[in-house]
Amino acid sequence: MEKSFIRELFHAQQIDISNREQLFEAFVQEEENLHRVKQILKNQQFLMDTWQLKSRLADIQQQTVVIPNATVGKVYEARLDFQQLNWTDFAAFSITGLEAVGLQFDSTTSVISGTPTQNGDWRLKFSYRLQGEPEETALHEKLVALIVNPDPRSLWKNISSDNTAPFWREDNASASAVLGDKRLVVASRRGRSHANTGGFRDDDFAFRYFPDTGWTVLAVSDGAGSAPLAREGARMACAHIVEYFEQHFTNAALAPFDAVLAEHAANPSETTEKQLTRFVYEQLGKAAFTTHKKIAEFAHNQQVPVKDFHATLIFALLKKYPCGYVIMSFGVGDCPIGLLNKDLSAITLMNRLDVGAFGGGTRFITMPEIFKSDTFATRFGFKLVPDFSYLMLMTDGIYDPKFEVEANLEKVSAWKALLADLGGENKENAIVELDTYPPAVAQQLSGWMDFWSPGNHDDRTLMIIS
Amino acid sequence: MRRLPVYFLLDTSGSMFGEPIQALNNALSGMVNTLRMDAQALDSLWLSIITFDRDVKELMPLTELVSFQLPEITCPQSGPTHTGSGLEFLHARVSADVRKGTPTQKGDWRPLLFIFTDGKPSDLQLYRSMIPKIKELNFAAIVGCAAGKAADNEMLRELADTVVHLDTADSATLKQFFKWVSDTIEQGNKSMGTTSQVVLPPPPQEVNLII
After folding, report:
1. How confident is the model over A129-139, as a mean pLDDT?
2. N or C: which end of chain B has fewer CB within 10 A?
3. What's the gap in Å between the CA of A148 and the closest CA on chain B?
4. Tell me: the pLDDT tens digits for B28-71?
5. How far apart are CA B73 and CA B93, in angstroms?
6. Burial class (CB within 10 angstroms; exposed 0-12, middle 13-18, buried 19+) of B107
7. Strands ordered across the beta sheet of B141-147
């Protein structure tokens, strides 16, 4: 070893030893020379080792270490995979900075866990020593980012809307009423997204029971979030519908309808069905168009574009006849009307939803084109049923969190789940006593409606007839 | 849950090297931190970052804000600005990522696009041919930002509904701009008609709206 080292050294330095072989042999045997070579080799090894260590440390410093983001109040667990990080040469390892966030590190399982208490863009200090380094060596340090999101619930503010603003509506409204032998409860709540900015409730509702005729009119509207005066659009839409039927659904005007219905109940035929359908189309179509015109007229008088009042509209008419309950409906927009039969075994959707390919894409009563469209005739519904358990009108603020997608509206199981939810099967333990209808039932519904559903913070309106 | 997909298409060509790219990193980081404190954004916002210079890179695929970690944006010292290739890549991503509403799937909110450049497209033909295809994607807003003297406002106008011009790409200006971007994003998840555009908040002083 030593001999070949010296030979290579001399060769590299072009020192010719070819004719001094004997002398060279003696030279490499000398104790002191041997010692010198050993020293050199040792120093070389030391330089190489040190370089390797420095280079390894530099690698570790540059290495991107990604720890998944955490969220305040949400159980967190992230394992540091030493194999995958290529940190199998670590001899000691600890993390500082976790305590401040509300987390801890378990060195036996390499797991960071806990429930974060503080949000922010934190820098954790990873302290480590590599194998082969003396134990007394100070630990190396690497800073690693940990993002802790705030608890989304803590971010929502509840700012009252400005009650001096034009067309102000109270943030929450609710009511209950008796409609002949059926009962009604309704609540409308301003969504968190509006409460967060001091915005207005853009949902609205109206209903009226006419004792003279036995008819009830029910209306629910959802003002477009992007329309600055949507709250007034929604209010007008509901109010004009009620007003229209107050004027036009008189006993005299309805006599021909009553006659056809009686005939239809006794002896249903294609003719009677056509006559009933035409009646619905004409009467409800006129009501919708009158409402549209009145809002457009109002917008014109106020000198604001009608689109500032954009609002969806669903409405239904209900009356008990000897042959059963008649329910007629009209809808524009993405709010469903559902009719559950007596034994909760079937659901009838009274209207077709205008749901676009993208969220928020829908149609409004304020759009003139809906009355010219080929699909206008598909906006009406007519049902004659012996009885029913529930008739519900809702805005997308309820439909989105409780049914999620359109297909679920057709599933009776989804409606049963909603009824169970109303009956108290929910995290908040909120109960709406639909069976007994206590005086506070409207308050109960309003309270239930404050449920938490991530991503669903729109205004909510639900009207239940049972 | 409805997602609000937001795409950033960022110019990382040679001219951005040095202070501008540093300023861009800082401004983006500030914007993400601001958004993280917004209740609505934290619930629904998804972000994607795509850069273009000679090459197009998907620096961050569409990721929900809750899990989002801003990558360091770097740029070469010189080279062309392949804006057209960037748009081509974006088109493929948006077509694949953005969910449309069906009876069994919740549709996303209409996506937003922010395109940031300090020059003009080197691949002009591809750029122009991509514009109609990008418009077909039905973005709720396409906002173009031209930064610095060499940035071509007119070229950006062909693509974007709104073009803003920043005189310089320094830290303070970019910070103001991205503050405005986060305000715009907060406007994004509101219900509206099927084709109407998002109403943008008024831009700050440093940002010149090109009309």
Report:
1. 91
2. C
3. 9
4. 998 999 899 988 888 889 999 999 999 999 999 999 999 999 99
5. 19
6. buried
7. B56-64, B45-52, B4-11, B112-117, B141-147, B162-166, B207-210
Nearest to residue B171, comparing CAs of B20, B10, B12?
Answer: B20
Q: Which residues contact A78 (CB under 8 A, 6 or more apart)?
A: A67, A68, A70, A111, A112, A113
B101 within 8 A of A352, measured Cβ to Cβ = no
Percent of chain A with pLDDT over 90: 89
Closest alpha carbon to A391 in A329, A445, A433? A329
> Measured between CB atoms, does B132 come within 8 Å of chain A?
no
Percent of chain B with pLDDT over 90: 49
B182 C-beta neighbours (distance < 10 Å), count = 21
**CA-atom Rg of chain B in angstroms:** 16
Q: Which CATH architecture has domain A70-155?
A: Sandwich (2.60)
Q: Tell me the C-alpha distance between B48 and B139, whole Å.
A: 14
Q: Do B103 and A224 touch (CB under 8 A)?
A: no
Closest chain B CA to residue A227: B192
Set of chain A residues whose Cβ sits within 8 Å of the Cβ of B33: 121
Whether residues B101 and A147 touch (CB distance < 8 A) is answered with no
Q: Going by CATH, does the domain composed of A172-465 fall within 3.40.50.300? A: no
Looking at the predicted structure, is the pLDDT value of residue B209 above 80?
no
Look up residue B177 and give its amino acid: F
CB contact under 8 A, B68 and A69: yes
Short-list B102, B90, B134, B109, CA closest to B192: B109
Cβ distance of A69 and B106 shorter than 8 Å: no
pLDDT of residue A146: 96
Residue A333 has pLDDT above 70, yes or no: yes
Confidence of residue A132 (pLDDT cuts 50, 70, 90): confident
Phi-psi region of A36 (alpha: psi -120 to 50; beta: other; left: phi over 0): alpha
Of B104, B190, B193, the CB nearest to A405: B104
User: Min CA distance, B46 vs chain A (Å)?
Assistant: 12
Residues 69-128 of B with CB under 8 A from A: 69, 100-110
* Strands B56-64 and A103-106, sheet pairing: unpaired
For the segment A30-54, the average pLDDT, to the nearest whole number, is 94
The domain that holds B37 is classified in CATH as: 3.40.50.410
Domain that holds residue B182: 4-210
Per residue in B116-172, pLDDT tens? Answer: 999 899 999 999 999 999 999 989 889 999 988 888 888 999 999 889 888 888 888
Contacts of B122 (CB under 8 A, 6+ apart): B80, B81, B82, B83
Torsions phi, psi for A237 (to 5 deg) = -55, -50
Let me know: does A11 contact A5? Beta carbons within 8 Å: no
Looking at the 3D structure of chain B, how many domains does it have?
1
**Closest to A155 (Cβ–Cβ): which among B42, B69, B110?**
B42
Which residues make beta-bridge pairs with A445? none
Q: How far is A153 from chain B (nearest CA, A)?
A: 7
**Residue B61 contacts A where some CB pair is shorter than 8 Å:** no
ipTM of this model?
0.84
CA terminus-to-terminus distance, chain A:
100
By C-alpha distance, the chain B residue nearest A156 is B39
The pLDDT confidence band at residue B211, using thresholds 50, 70 and 90, is low
